[in-house]
TrEMBL record:
<dbReference type="InterPro" id="IPR017853">
    <property type="entry name" value="GH"/>
</dbReference>
<protein>
    <submittedName>
        <fullName>DUF1735 domain-containing protein</fullName>
    </submittedName>
</protein>
<dbReference type="InterPro" id="IPR013728">
    <property type="entry name" value="BT_3987-like_N"/>
</dbReference>
<feature type="signal peptide">
    <location>
        <begin position="1"/>
        <end position="22"/>
    </location>
</feature>
<dbReference type="Pfam" id="PF08522">
    <property type="entry name" value="BT_3987-like_N"/>
</dbReference>
<feature type="domain" description="BT-3987-like N-terminal">
    <location>
        <begin position="44"/>
        <end position="162"/>
    </location>
</feature>
<keyword id="KW-0732">Signal</keyword>
């Protein structure tokens, strides 16, 4: 092989290539032209954000069952600082107006003299770490009104010069406080596994919640669902709406008789919503359709003094995609509905039955699912799984169907499994007094969870009748 010709060829090729490169650069570069530096903005900033330290949530519901509630407020940073840096947290009373306007709410400011921060609220992030926490104590007061939501808007201030706060959302953490001191019959401890129960209200009185009582006097079920209202198409308005059958509507119209007695003892009462054999569905609403429907759900909860909603994606037909309120069924559409619902009623529970398309997307508009879903319950015989920043604490680890007698049981071994794996909930569906004998035999693990056995039932309630009857004598 002749190295002379190879060397000459390489040299010629390099000359041609260099000429082409210089010509190309000359065509693209303009000497003296200003460079748009906006695309690089923020890359050197250390952005701060505020969260509740216990839950890592921006918006945290706090229930006062005692005279004090303690938590921490956490400041996180997007980068690890080279040296220690700091900021301070305090109450931003003026922000409440902005918050209420954004959520169309009328929450009151929690008395500021009942809130204290340790170390004067100063948060110091040491070098080579990315967060710091400071203790916050909320005290109860004599003038607090029951069944009212108060807000503690906590904000960052006096931050070091190397800390950047991107916007008002990053700057604030919201605590939604409720006085539950006189409604504590369900309260069995802050971190215990809790009970979540669906009532088929077409045939069963939700006051039968009171049949399930522990030997220590506490009620077993923490949350009940009125199963179920529906999402249906309103042909006159041309949009989806909440539709209540006569049985659901009767309970809502008489909620002081059938629902508020439960709430006064600490039971959360949710409105169940379900598809109903038409073109609308909980997982097939457009962005605007989801926003509109969520606002209607929030109005129902406010008007009838309910504690939230359960969404169940079943029994819907294919949508009419020419309707601007509807879209192709998807988990993303279902997530959007949950997100919009939480925006519309931030102090209420947004819960889902993990079935169909109702559950599976972990972020909406960059906001994690933990901010807009509170509880996830599974199909019978299975356990719910967390996504995003959710944990087992927000999931039911067992689901029992009482009418058909299927699904798991709340046995002692199941109870230990729930506790060992950090589950926050167990679920029951469709209890009725006629089935009490078999139902109560499935709940022996209550003692493992709470250190107190479940009492055998002595009372029950007939449909649409607030009178407590003797069990089992008055069953017939």
């Amino acid at each position: 092989m002749n190295m002379k010709y190879i060397t000459s060829g390489l040299l010629a090729a390099m000359i041609v290539s260099s000429t082409a490169f210089l010509t190309s650069c000359a065509d693209e570069l303009e000497v003296g032209k200003n460079i748009d530096e906006s695309v690089y903005s923020g890359i050197y900033e250390n952005n701060a954000y505020l969260r509740d330290g216990k839950s890592n949530l921006v918006s945290k519901i706090v229930e006062l069952h005692g005279e004090t509630y303690a938590t921490t407020v956490k400041m996180g940073l997007s980068k690890t600082p080279n040296t220690a840096t700091s900021a301070r947290v305090k109450i931003d009373a003026a922000y409440l107006e902005t918050y209420n306007k954004a959520h169309n709410t009328d929450f009151a400011l929690y008395p500021q003299d009942l809130v204290t921060f340790a170390d004067e609220g100063i948060l110091t992030v040491n070098a080579n770490t990315k967060s710091a926490e400071v203790e916050m104590t909320i005290r109860a007061g004599e003038d607090l009104q029951e069944d009212k939501t108060y807000v503690i808007p906590v904000t960052l201030s006096d931050q070091s010069s190397d800390i950047t706060i991107k916007d008002e959302d990053a700057k604030h953490c919201i605590y939604l406080v409720k006085d539950m001191r006189n409604a504590g019959d369900t309260y069995k401890g802050e971190d215990v596994v809790k009970g979540y129960l669906f009532f088929e209200v077409n045939g069963v009185n939700p006051l039968n919640t009171f049949s399930f009582q522990l030997e220590n006097g506490k009620l077993m079920w923490d949350v009940i669902v009125l199963f179920a209202a529906n999402i249906n198409y309103d042909s006159e308005a041309g949009r989806p709406r909440v539709q209540c059958n006569p049985n659901v509507q009767y309970l809502l119209d008489n909620n002081e008789t059938f629902l508020q007695p439960l709430r006064k003892r600490g039971v959360k009462v949710l409105l169940g919503l379900l598809g109903n054999h038409d073109i609308t569905g909980l997982a097939q609403l457009s962005d605007q359709g989801a926003k509109d429907f969520a606002r209607e759900v929030a109005q129902y909860c406010k008007a009838y003094n309910l504690d939230g909603v359960n969404y169940d994606d079943e029994y819907s037909k294919s949508p009419d995609l020419s309707n601007p309120s509807l879209t192709t069924p998807s988990a993303a559409a279902a997530a959007r509905l949950c997100y919009e619902t939480k925006l519309a009623m931030p102090d209420k529970l947004v819960t889902v039955f993990a079935y169909g398309q109702m559950y599976g997307v972990s972020t909406v508009d960059g906001v994690d699912v933990s901010e807009w879903i509170d509880i996830v319950v599974p199909n019978y015989g299975s356990s719910a799984r967390p996504i995003g920043n959710l944990t087992n604490k927000e999931c039911a680890g067992v689901a029992m169907e009482f009418h058909l007698g299927i699904g798991g049981n709340l046995s002692s071994s199941t109870a230990r499994n729930l506790m060992n794996n950090g589950y926050g909930w167990y679920m029951g569906f469709a209890p009725s007094p006629e089935k009490y004998s078999s139902i109560f035999n499935r709940l022996t693990g209550v003692e493992t969870l709470y250190g107190s056995q479940i009492k055998q039932p002595t009372i029950f309630y007939k449909k649409d009748d607030p009178t407590p009857y003797k069990y089992p004598d008055d069953l017939r």
